[in-house]
From TrEMBL:
It comes from the Bacteria. It comes from Brachybacterium sacelli. This is Osmotically inducible protein OsmC. Residues 1-27 are annotated as: Disordered. Pfam families: OsmC.
Length: 145
């Protein structure tokens, strides 16, 4: 029987966009509150601050790794390890989020390159975050270690 799990995050913002700032809190996990401001999003990332794109990248890399691990296990070739990252491109002024590049390296015994690439692509197409981001080009670079 399907069930819905709810996750919550919140942001408080003060001021206008260019000079304002705020904090984003991971409410469900209670893992922390992180500062956010326009400069970290549009100019350069600063240690200790985050951006919507970085948070989106973290969500996508995590979701992808989970989906790929599951697909590999369902194939009868469970992974020893899966390392994934997501690079999110943000076009300031027009376009917004214009693309995401998923990069994955996985150690999987007993799997050939063709099946590895097929399963990697399937995970990219079908992980829930990829499904939510269908309006954005998502590229995949997959390496079988």
């Amino acid at each position: 029987m399907p069930r819905t799990v709810i996750s919550t995050a919140s942001t408080t913002w003060q001021g206008d966009l260019p000079s304002g700032s705020g904090t984003t809190t991971l409410e469900t996990s209670q893992l922390g509150t992180f500062p956010v401001h326009w400069k970290a999003r549009a100019e350069e990332s600063e240690q200790g601050t985050t951006s919507p794109e970085e948070l989106l990248g973290a969500a996508h890399a995590t979701c992808y790794a989970m989906a790929f691990s599951n697909g590999l296990a369902e194939n009868g070739t469970p992974p020893t390890s899966v390392d994934s990252s997501a690079t999110v491109s943000f076009n300031i002024g027009s376009g917004g989020i214009t693309g995401i590049e998923l990069t994955v390296t996985a150690t999987v015994d007993g799997l050939d390159e063709t099946d590895f690439q097929r399963l990697a692509e399937d995970a990219k197409e079908n992980c829930p975050v990829s499904q939510a981001l269908k309006g954005v080009d998502i590229a995949l670079n997959a390496t079988l270690a």
